């Protein structure tokens, strides 16, 4: 679809309104919400990205992508303690050893 094409081509200005509309129409679609959060991050709008991550976490409290995305934002904003807590939650909720190791690797790269 057009939104995926725009995202892949780096056209965030074109993708943003399309993804926002999709999220409005499909608020329970976490994949589109994650896309929206990533677009906000790439557009240097961490506040909006965090709002979307929080909305995802309200629907699915152990969503690994949202926990990791929010942790990275918090680390970038200088809130290391919050970032560590989010990454610990992500590691604890990761369903496989491989995913736990990936979360640890992300944590190691941030700290």
Write a brief structural summary.
The chain has helices at residues 2-8, 12-25, 30-42, 46-59, 64-76, 80-93, 97-110. The chain is an all-alpha fold.
Structural class: mainly alpha
Low-confidence parts: none
- Kindly state the percentage of residues in helix: over 70%
Series of secondary-structure elements, N-terminal to C-terminal: HHHHHHH
Taking the sheet with the most strands, its summary is: none
Shape: globular
Counting DSSP H or I runs of 4 or more residues, the number of helices is 7
Number of DSSP E strands: 0
Oligomer: single chain
What value does the average pLDDT take?
Answer: 93
Alpha carbon gap, first and last residue = 38 Å
Residues in β-strands, percent = under 5%
Rounded to the nearest angstrom, the radius of gyration is 14 Å
Keywords:
111 residues; mainly alpha; 7 helices
Verbal overview:
It is a single chain. α6 (80-93) packs antiparallel against α7. The protein has seven helices and no strands. It is globular and about 35 Å long. 29% of the residues are buried. It has helices at 2-8, 12-25, 30-42, 46-59, 64-76, 80-93, 97-110. With 111 residues, the protein is an all-alpha fold. Helices cover 80% and strands 0% of the residues. The longest helix is centred in the N-terminal third of the chain and has 14 residues, at 12-25.
């Amino acid at each position: 679809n057009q939104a995926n094409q725009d995202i892949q081509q780096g056209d965030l200005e074109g993708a943003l309104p399309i993804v926002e509309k999709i999220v409005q129409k499909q608020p329970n679609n976490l994949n589109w919400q994650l896309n929206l959060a990533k677009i906000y991050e790439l557009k240097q709008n961490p506040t909006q990205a965090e709002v979307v991550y929080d909305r995802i976490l309200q629907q699915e409290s152990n969503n690994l992508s949202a926990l990791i995305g929010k942790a990275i934002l918090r680390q970038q904003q200088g809130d290391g303690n919050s970032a560590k807590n989010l990454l610990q939650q992500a590691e604890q909720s990761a369903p496989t050893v491989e995913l736990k190791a990936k979360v640890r690797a992300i944590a190691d790269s941030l700290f």
